[in-house]
Design goal:
The protein is α/β, with parallel strands linked by helices and about 270 residues long. It has eight helices and ten strands.
Length: about 270
């Protein structure tokens, strides 16, 4: 994410959000690791973690590349970076370099990277093209840019259909766009990457279809709870609306026949041309 302070983060940087991001990371970690493997991230690699947040991916990257490699974690939130620093220090990961910087403020002082990892960052920044240019500038020729970004947020539905959840998704998307972001940013990323001198080499949609008993259900469920309060605080909805959504989701979660389809993510791997 990018901005100038903690308060303009769409979802906040408080302890509860750090915990939710940890849950989110655990859900997506297998897919992230496979993406990294596909792109050749290995021992000795130099990798930029773009919009590193609390550092969950930063730690994984540092453990993979080892002390002969480098990880550069770029993040504007001091709260998040403090959490990342502590996590790396606890594990003795001294080859991680932290950059507290607004990604929209200018280029990073990082060059010659073998890869750059960017997950749910482009959808929150005010200028995705500038973000892509920052990533391209940091890579060496032949280096890989890796993205996980939302492609079609409205795929987030329940089966059987649940109108209150669909209304919630619509409100989340509207509030997201009102803050200057774009939930379906992956629709434009391949073109932006090509324009910045990167050749797209891999594209794959990622979506889960899960019953309430699946571990992954916790990820969207936690997001709903966080954002019901956020939408209420923004004045976009009232208490009765929140209660309707919460009641409908609890009823769905109590029925083992329910299926949740999660928001579609696009995995992108692009290589910097010489």
């Amino acid at each position: 994410m990018a901005g100038t302070g903690e308060r303009d983060y769409v979802l906040g940087t408080h302890r509860e959000e750090i915990e939710r991001l940890g849950l989110q990371h655990r859900v997506w970690r297998p897919h992230m690791l496979e993406c990294w493997r596909r792109a050749g991230i290995t021992v000795g690699s130099k990798v930029l973690d773009v919009g590193a947040g609390p550092g969950y991916a930063t730690v994984d990257l540092a453990e993979i590349v080892g002390p002969t490699g480098e990880v550069h974690a770029a993040e504007r939130s001091g709260n998040f970076l403090q959490h990342a620093r502590e996590a790396c220090a606890t594990r003795g990961l001294s080859h991680v370099h932290f950059h507290e910087q607004d990604l929209m403020a200018g280029p990073l002082d990082v060059q010659g990277m073998d890869a750059a990892w960017c997950r749910w960052v482009a959808s929150f920044v005010s200028d995705p093209a500038k973000l892509v240019a920052t990533v391209a500038q940091a890579l060496r020729p032949g280096g890989a840019a890796l993205f996980h970004e939302y492609l079609d947020y409205r795929t987030w539905r329940l089966a059987p259909p649940c109108p209150p959840l669909e209304a919630f998704v619509s409100e989340v998307m509207a509030s997201w766009r009102a803050s200057g972001g774009e939930p379906d940013v992956a629709l434009s990323l391949p073109t932006l990457l090509e324009g910045a001198g990167l050749a797209v080499t891999h594209l794959a949609p990622k979506v889960f279809v899960i019953p309430p008993g699946d571990f992954i259900w916790q990820w969207p469920s936690a997001f709903v709870e966080t954002n019901l309060q956020r939408l209420l605080d923004l004045g976009r909805v009232d208490e009765a609306w929140v209660a309707t959504v919460r009641t409908a989701l609890r009823a769905a979660a109590a029925d083992p026949r329910t299926l949740m389809i999660t928001p579609m993510v696009l995995e992108i791997v692009a290589e910097k041309r010489n």
